Amino acid sequence: ALSVVLLGLSGSGKTSALNLILERAGNQYSVNGLSHESASTTSSCEKKEAFAAGRRLVLVDTPELWDEDGVEAVELVKDCLALALPGPHVFLLVLQVGRFTQGESDMLGHLQRIFGREFAEHAVVLFVRFDSKTREKIDDHVSGAHSSLQELIRKCGSRYYELNVSKSQNALSFPQVKDLLSGINKLAASHGGRPYAVRRFSVQELQQRSKVMEERKEGTRTVCLADSTSNQQSLRNNFCSTVSDLLEIFTAQTMDICKVIFFPHI
């Protein structure tokens, strides 16, 4: 499997990009866990999968992994790494076109402190465009960008791609997703297909965490199924009770009518 972790600030378009990648892959490949719901702010790490060209592609969506003071959320970091096993192989740094604040400028530093100094060697910058009217090419956008953005891209090996998530630009997204997946595969291959090792956490610890998360997920499914079954049984009982009451009323009324017709003087 090839594992990819999407990282970025809230509102950058991580979830929109992930769903678009899966949706486009789903036109040719089988997809697990695809949600067609509108993207909202992600509060926990989530994993979705697709099978592309005979290979399993694992995409991990994440919330911000640090707070406004730059303090990392260690439990979320462990979650995203556990979900990305046996990876991660590639990190996608998601930036919204037209938005580059101090928060985005500081992002690489935060991520290197969390994942290690070699993080950038396994990272790709992904620009997400929401505006369907803008005709500016992404290369022109980068060449005219703030020096801090250009430096971030340079540290990531000058690897950057674009996804237009606007519904009115659906046709554009097919070649964009194809180019992005090609770039992801090339980067993973350049490292011999080996996953990026975050030395702070052992593989055993992350495997155990992944197991617990899966069991918790299955437990939630079981509870939901049990609740659904209980609700269905309750509806059936209520329906049967209502039908029984109606039959009693109907029977009583029928007997009264028969008395009037056949025994009018009683």
UniProtKB/TrEMBL annotation:
It comes from Stegastes partitus (bicolor damselfish). The lineage of its organism: Eukaryota, Metazoa, Chordata, Craniata, Vertebrata. The keyword Nucleotide-binding applies. SUPFAM superfamilies: P-loop containing nucleoside triphosphate hydrolases. Residues 1-205 form the AIG1-type G domain. One of its GO terms (molecular function) is GTP binding. Keywords: GTP-binding, Nucleotide-binding. This is AIG1-type G domain-containing protein. It comes from the Eukaryota. It holds the Pfam family AIG1. Belongs to the TRAFAC class TrmE-Era-EngA-EngB-Septin-like GTPase superfamily. AIG1/Toc34/Toc159-like paraseptin GTPase family. IAN subfamily. InterPro entries: G_AIG1, GIMA/IAN/Toc, P-loop_NTPase.
